[in-house]
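Q: Could you fold this chain for me?
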Amino acid sequence: MINLVWLRTFCTLADIGHFTRTAEKLHMTQSGVSQHINKLEAQLKQMLIQREGKQFSLSPAGEKLYFKGRRILDELIDLELSIGDDPAFEGCVQIHSPGSLGLKLYPHLLALQVKNPKLVIDHRFAPNTEIEQAVSSKMADVGLMTVKSQLEEVRSEAIAKEPLLLITPAGFGQPTWQSLCELGFIDHPDGNHHANLLLGANFAEFQHAGLLKKKGFSNQIGMILEPVAMGLGFTILPAHAVAAFTPQSKIKIHHLAQPVFETVYLCTRQYSLRPQRVETIVQEVCRVLQ
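A: Sure. Below is the predicted structure, expressed as structure tokens.
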């Protein structure tokens, strides 16, 4: 029978992809992690990881073991939760979301924590790819994404839609393709994607976002509209990010002829039961976004 401790070490290593961080997560030494992998390989008489200098990848046997082993470990965790104490308003819940959704949600989650002090909110802003990996590797209990996950182990449920908005400085007239080109674009990490969606649907002259005249860039969700408010350019953002900006009097929101929405997906582990504290957060997220 496979040693479950060794299997847990192997699956955690496959999730994280790094020996040192795996050792830290499991409160082990790096040599201890290597010993568990070696013992598991010896027991199964199979090479499970292919070492490439300081990097590694799973062998075909390792991929098979990870796929089935991770499911077994998740089921054991679920079994423990199902027969143990599972309070709805106690414990830590890790949630990852894009910045715009985070600006909308975080105040509500904090208000929930104020009412229930034993509930701990760990909320992190991240791009879709990082959120997907965090849910897959169990580094996040809940992930909110604006694209549907392609990973088999991640369950995606469409829960809301968020409009994309064209934002210009206050006093800017009805936008035309020429006036936008003259004004210039304030870019951000999702800027090209958002521009391709909204401008592509509304301006026949638009080809792709790479041709826009760039007038600035910010990777801080709360700062993207600052240069717009100062008259330096226009940008495109999800509605929640726009609503969080102050002062609103310095920007102008344009509702174009063809509205464009991003679907919001609630993402959790496919093969895991959700503890009651996670259900509490899921219900609050759905209430706020819907």
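A (continued): The mean pLDDT is 93.
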